[in-house]
Amino acid sequence: MAPQIPSEQWAQVLEATGKPLHYKKIPVQQPGPDEVLVNVKYSGVCHTDLHAIKGDWPLATKLPLVGGHEGAGVVVARGELVKDVEIGDHVGIKWINGACLSCGYCMRGDEQLCQSATMSGYTVDGSFQQYAIAKAAIVARIPKECDLEAVSPILCAGITVYRGLKESGCKAGDTIAIVGAGGGLGSLALQYAKAMGLHTIAIDGGADKGEHCKKLGATSYVDFTKTQDIVADVKAATIDGQGPAAALLVAVQEKPFQQAAAYVRSKGVVVCIGLPADAKLSNPVFDTVIRMVSFKGSYVGNRADTAEALDFFRRGLIEVPYKTVGLSELQKVFDLMEEGKIAGRYVVDTSK
Ligand code: NAD
Ligand code: ZN
């Protein structure tokens, strides 16, 4: 029997950048020929959603906007061209909502670099609503045995850090610094890193985040609010005192982006993932050259990264530390996020 689709639904709507959200009823849209309509059950809340609301980046959002890009749910309708996603399948609305799949980037599996890629909760409406639309070729295929609530943060945080760890070039036995380790991305990075055989130096602020990181398997913890010399402390946490092979930067402040090159070992890799407003990278050219340090940006992941990151979760290798509140309470989550008080991830239940 075809699922009942209402004509109206609850959503969190941003009417103007920098203004409060409105929790209200809006129409349910119809999927286009190559799209699916997803009954979003749960959505993780990513710091990117807060950047979007505040207008932090040099790229405007659509307005009015329904944010959210970690939406886990069930397919309830599909366009006439969709053949490989069935009604009832579990899928994920992730950051990349659509891509052309025929340009040079898409052909090489870099659909996040496609010039016509659309972004959920940014250039198209996302998962802070009960019914969201995405291109069928792009939605994440979520195995049926995965709990939709617990898996939702994998759809951005998990995929992103999994790809970032690959970009770091680290191999089993290497040590990597995870900067912003207590947050949503960081909490998952600690566990993907551990599953890949890496040692981790978690960097974040406060004793509570330290406890949280240790529980998630961090090898050691450096508190950026307490340390007198972060470079010395991070180097001291490695076997030979030379520093980690890489740093994965998922923090939301500029300062750690300026510090990381000084504590990675020679030939180390600095992987930039966090996107603090107006932040710049700078490092002495001399030091970069004679120590052969590399800087990289890493941006979400492609469809293969998505399937692989989900499979780590399915196999029980990744524990997602989350708390759930109703979609109606989303503003409270952003208030806590702004204060840096969230350890792990908040998930919203779209039925409340
Ligand atoms: P979050 O708020 O959950 O976590 C950020 C963490 O950084 C917090 O625990 C905070 O205490 C910590 N932090 C702040 N200043 C720090 C410092 N000086 N040193 C160490 N830690 C510090 O945020 P999140 O949802 O994990 O997102 C993190 C960032 O990643 C955001 O900027 C987001 O937009 C970005 N992001 C990028 C991509 C990508 O594809 N590149 C994907 C998703 C998110
Ligand atoms: Zn995100």
From TrEMBL:
GO terms for cellular component: cytoplasm. CDD domains: CAD3. PANTHER family: ALCOHOL DEHYDROGENASE 1-RELATED. Its cofactor is Zn(2+). SUPFAM superfamilies: GroES-like, NAD(P)-binding Rossmann-fold domains. GO terms for molecular function: alcohol dehydrogenase (NAD+) activity; zinc ion binding. This is alcohol dehydrogenase. Belongs to the zinc-containing alcohol dehydrogenase family. Its EC number is 1.1.1.1. Residues 18-348 form the Enoyl reductase (ER) domain. Keywords: Metal-binding, NAD, Oxidoreductase, Zinc. InterPro entries: ADH-like_C, ADH-like_N, ADH_Zn_CS, ER, GroES-like_sf, NAD(P)-bd_dom_sf. It comes from the Eukaryota. Gene3D superfamilies: Medium-chain alcohol dehydrogenases, catalytic domain, NAD(P)-binding Rossmann-like Domain. The keyword Metal-binding applies. It holds the Pfam family ADH_N.
